[in-house]
Write a structure and sequence with these properties.
The complex is a heterodimer.
Chain A (H helix, E strand, L loop, with lengths): L2 H14 L1 H36 L7 E8 L20 H8 L4 E15 L19 E9 L9 E6 L9 E4 L1 H6 L14 E11 L5 E18 L6 E4 H12 L16 E6 L2 H13 L2 E4 L2 H43 L1 H9 L4 H44 L11 H28 L4 H4 L1
Parallel strand pairs in A: 3-8, 5-7
Antiparallel strand pairs in A: 1-9, 1-10, 2-3, 2-6, 2-9, 4-7, 5-8, 6-7
Helix pairs in contact in A: 1-9, 2-7, 2-9, 2-10, 7-9, 7-10, 9-10
Chain B lengths: L2 H15 L1 H9 L5 E6 L1 H4 L6 H4 L1 H9 L5 E4 L7 H7 L1 H6 L4 E5 L2 H6 L3 H16 L5 E5 L8 H8 L17 H22 L2 E3 L1 H11 L15 H21 L1
Parallel strand pairs in B: 1-2, 1-3, 3-4, 4-5
Helix pairs in contact in B: 5-13, 6-9, 9-11
Classes of the chains: A alpha+beta, B alpha/beta.
């Protein structure tokens, strides 16, 4: 008996008892579905948690502040910053050449008055009785918008301003809250035109301090959660650079708080998580304060891995129960087919031919059940993700993305088939050992 | 021979398809830079929301392109001489493409000679104009003899408010009207000789007087414009700019 004959016999045997076969396949499918869904959700949750920790940016991202390093806190993710230390173009070039550095993105911030004509400021955000209606004080964060994906920025509504645009901005929910716009209504700000005034300190001829602003107008095109800088207005780099230059050129005796460093910070991407420590040390050696969520990411990765093991364990237990079901079904089949096995032996079939037939039967049931289960598991994961998405959206947060883990799909199908093969080993060996006389004794 | 029309058509198509690139380049060209030189009226002194209601801010918001940049250099109580020293150098360093100048009320009440004032104004306009690179709009003097603040000074009811002190001695209405006329003659002379645009606030306020709405155009201090006055001034500047654009 060759492999084709054995396969033919096994399939015929499965089809001859469709009810039992369907139940056994269902048991395997349910176990595989549970296994796939749990691991997919665990992987998605891990990605989501880690991205959240990295504030949407690359996990291997390091933020360099325009401040001196604090030598006593080098191991900390968020050390207290030292005295202000300007970041110049030369600093940027130097860091770019450090080993393990993939990219260095500049961040420019500028003080700004935000004037939203015809929109009152929430009473809690008003600076004082003399403050104009619709004006709040905030900070403008300028980034290279062509590389926004590499920065800790998440678009909540709308889109990011066009790279180099001088007339588009994105704002944060924190800024909108100053205008009394809650997280669930941030979309209502899209399309509004705001006026942004970068102040410069002057000493008037009579010696009084005065501020004169450089005003620009911009349309709100997006609402974002961002950690690149501390401001509520996200703009293109040229827009923020011009505003910063205006403020920085002011009289220092009038506005001593005005930022003087050309760059408020740099966002450095290391080649991988393993390189983050080394790159941070190099930057610290240059005298700059850095922060990166490396410690917390490592800790969370460890915890999430434990959760993954537990969930996978639950899935494996389900698969083991399904395998016992296969063993049970095949043992029943062996008992029912003793006569058939005896006849096969009588016409010359060897032990290994019978063994092969039963093993193929078990593997087919396992593979079919595994495939169906994996598909159902992925669908389940997507349904759960959709429900979670709805909840996150209602909270004004970015949703989750469930990818198709091809390796997991392959592993689930192959694992189900392999486990079924093992489960079928005992009944198949029992069938193979049955003597030919079984055909006449029954 | 049929190749030639096809070639010509292809060239025409290529010419048409290259048009968006030109407009793209235009969108990245340097924006309009608007600077305002002036005194308390241009800052919006006396308004509840000066950043919303001042005529300079209105003019910037309503009459210039969305990509325009605006810096208001105006200093309350400034005369032309003070502006020349404290406002104009920074304003000129911004290389403005549009500049507005409303400086005359403090000069009149400080008793600056109209000829001296004319010389200072010419210097301001020439510096801001940078040889015609900027469009400079210059406002003339409103009919100050109609302002409630001046009338209070004249009747002796009030000698000073938070933003305005009565001149000593208080000129008669006829004398003040004559000074205003002398100032406006100087302003007209400066604008015509430098190519600047004259914004005739005197005519706008006089028309309001004929309509009986002058009082509503002036704020609580009796001198600086109210919200309605600021809107009227912004409209006068916008109309002057629009006339210049349509003429060119």
């Amino acid at each position: 008996m060759n492999w084709a004959d054995a396969f033919h016999l096994a399939v015929r045997s499965v089809l001859r008892r469709p009810g039992r076969a369907a139940l056994t396949v269902t048991a395997v499918a349910l176990a595989a579905a549970l296994f796939t869904a749990m691991l997919t959700m665990a992987a998605t949750a891990q990605g989501r948690v880690l991205n959240q920790l990295a504030n949407g940016g690359p996990l291997a991202g390091i933020q360099v502040a325009a401040a001196a390093a604090n030598p006593s806190q080098l191991g900390s993710d968020n050390p207290t910053q030292g005295a202000p230390k300007p970041i110049t173009q030369a600093t940027r070039s130097h860091i770019n050449q450090l080993p393990g550095v993939v990219s260095v993105l500049p961040i420019v911030t500028a003080q700004t008055l935000v004037l939203w004509p015809n929109h009152a400021v929430a009473p809690t955000a008003r600076g004082g009785p003399d403050q104009s209606r619709g004006v709040v004080f905030d900070e403008m964060v300028g980034i290279d918008l062509e590389h926004a994906a590499d920065l800790p920025i998440t678009v909540l509504e709308g889109h990011l301003p066009a790279p180099g645009s001088l007339t588009e901005v994105a704002v944060t929910p924190a800024l909108l809250s100053k205008y009394g716009i809650g997280r669930t209504h941030v979309a209502s700000a899209l399309g509004a035109v705001v006026e942004l005034g970068a102040p410069r300190g002057f000493r008037d001829p009579d010696g009084f301090r005065a501020f004169r602003s450089r005003w620009t107008r911009a349309t709100i095109v997006g609402v974002v959660a961002e950690e690149a800088g501390s401001g509520g207005v996200l703009t293109s780099l040229p827009q923020a650079t011009a505003s910063h230059a205006w403020t920085a050129a002011g009289d220092p005796t009038v506005d001593s708080d005005a930022p003087r460093s050309p760059y408020a910070g740099l966002f450095v991407s290391a080649r991988g998580l393993g390189q983050v420590s080394q790159v941070r040390s190099e930057i610290t050696r240059l005298g700059y304060s850095t922060s990166a969520p490396e410690n917390i990411i490592t800790t969370v990765e460890r915890y999430v891995h434990v959760v993954e093991i537990v969930l996978a364990g639950v899935g494996v237990i389900a698969l083991a129960i399904a395998a016992l079901g296969i063993t049970n079904a095949l043992l029943a089949a062996v008992r029912e087919r003793r006569r058939e096995i005896g006849i096969l032996k009588a016409v010359g079939a060897r032990d290994r031919d019978v063994l092969r037939t039963f093993l193929i039967e078990a593997t087919v049931i396992g593979a079919v059940g595994g495939l169906i289960g994996t598909i159902v598991g992925l669908l389940l994961a997507r349904i759960v993700a959709a429900v979670v998405d709805g909840y996150l959206a209602s909270q004004g947060l970015a949703g989750v993305h469930v990818g198709i883990p091809y390796l997991l799909v392959l592993a689930a199908v192959a694992g189900s088939a392999g486990l079924s093969l093992l489960a079928g080993l005992f009944p198949a060996r029992r069938a193979a050992r049955l003597p030919a006389r079984e055909a006449v004794e029954l | 021979m049929r190749v030639l029309p096809i070639l010509a058509g292809a060239l025409l198509l290529a010419a048409c398809t290259s048009a968006p690139q030109t407009s793209k380049a235009g969108s990245t060209s340097k924006p309009v830079v608007y600077v305002a030189v002036g005194a308390s009226e241009s800052v919006g002194v006396g308004l509840t929301d000066p950043l919303v209601g001042a005529w300079t801010q209105r003019f910037y918001r309503d009459s210039l392109k969305p990509s325009a940049v605006f810096v208001n250099m105006a200093v309350p109580a400034s005369t032309a001489m003070q502006a020349l020293q404290a406002q104009v150098p920074t304003a000129a360093s911004l290389k403005p493409t549009v500049a507005t100048v409303w400086l005359n009320v403090n000069d009149v009440f400080d008793g600056v000679d109209p000829v001296v004032y004319g010389r200072q104004l010419r210097s301001i306009v020439s510096t801001l104009s940078r040889g015609g690179a900027a469009t400079v709009l210059v406002a003339n003097t409103p009919p100050l003899q109609l302002l409630p603040g001046y009338l209070n000074c004249l009747s002796g009811q009030e000698r000073a408010t938070r933003t305005f002190s009565c001149p000593t001695p208080v000129p008669t209405a006829t004398a003040l009207q004559a000074v205003v006329a002398a100032y406006n003659a100087q302003i007209a002379s400066v604008t015509s000789s430098t190519g600047a645009l004259l914004v005739n606030l005197n005519a706008a306020y006089t028309a309001a007087e004929r309509g009986g709405t002058t009082a509503s155009l002036v704020g609580p201090d009796g001198i600086n414009p109210s919200n309605a006055g600021q809107a009227l001034v912004a409209h006068a500047f916008a109309a002057a700019l629009a006339r210049a654009h349509s003429a060119s």
